[in-house]
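tokens incoming
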């Protein structure tokens, strides 16, 4: 059984690496692998605060900033975070960090760690490609929000949390265009691909590890199901 997790950079490194979360997350992964010898994880890691900070610096300092260059800066941040995760889980992850999901032809060990690939989308899209490649029917998208809302709750106090939503309605919320550093529950480009292949995505709060255990064990949980 392969579980694909899009591990948001906002929880791995909101501004710098979150050592407490990393220790707790790694401990949970080890426990789950010990409990079920058939379980395997693909962890696709995002760029988080460092990606956005470096992108902002680039846009402020460059004479003619481009989205393509900003995207490459974000990609490099995902690779640093992914290397950190791979190092922490090295005993379960003999492979090097994967940076091109189209070249992921084998899955050695029990954990595979991946990072951003190239400009045009976020690491969420890579997670969708891994799910497609290794026949997973769900991507668990862990970030710094517990659920998808009808609008941005920070600017609209009337925004309501959503338990379940169709891909059509979700894409109406997030749009179709990818902008480097764009902060949405799930990347618009990834959403289009996920809808086309019939993938289910669960959006949930990454730091709530008890809730993550419920998701992984098929129990009621707090989050949003997109299908």
């Amino acid at each position: 059984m392969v579980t694909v997790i899009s591990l948001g950079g906002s929880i791995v490194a909101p501004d710098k690496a979150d050592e407490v979360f990393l220790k707790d997350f790694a401990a949970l992964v080890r426990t789950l692998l010990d409990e079920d010898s058939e379980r395997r994880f693909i962890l696709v890691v995002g760029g988080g605060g460092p990606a956005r900070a470096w992108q902002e610096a680039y846009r402020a300092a460059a004479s003619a900033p481009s989205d393509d260059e900003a995207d490459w800066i974000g990609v490099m941040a995902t690779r640093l975070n992914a290397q950190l995760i791979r190092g922490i889980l090295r005993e379960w992850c003999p492979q090097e960090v994967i940076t091109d999901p189209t070249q992921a032809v084998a899955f050695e060990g029990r954990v595979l760690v991946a990072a951003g690939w190239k400009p045009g989308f976020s690491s969420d899209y890579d997670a969708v490609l891994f799910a497609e490649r290794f026949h997973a029917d769900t991507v668990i998208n862990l970030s710094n929000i517990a659920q998808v809302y009808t609008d941005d709750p920070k600017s609209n106090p009337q925004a309501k949390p959503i338990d379940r939503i169709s891909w059509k309605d979700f894409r109406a919320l997030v749009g179709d265009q990818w902008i480097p550093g764009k902060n949405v529950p799930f990347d618009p480009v990834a959403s289009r691909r996920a809808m086309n292949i019939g993938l289910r995505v669960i959006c949930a709060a990454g730091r709530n590890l008890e809730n993550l255990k419920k998701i992984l064990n098929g129990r009621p949980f707090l989050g949003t199901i997109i299908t």
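note: The chain has a mean pLDDT of 95.
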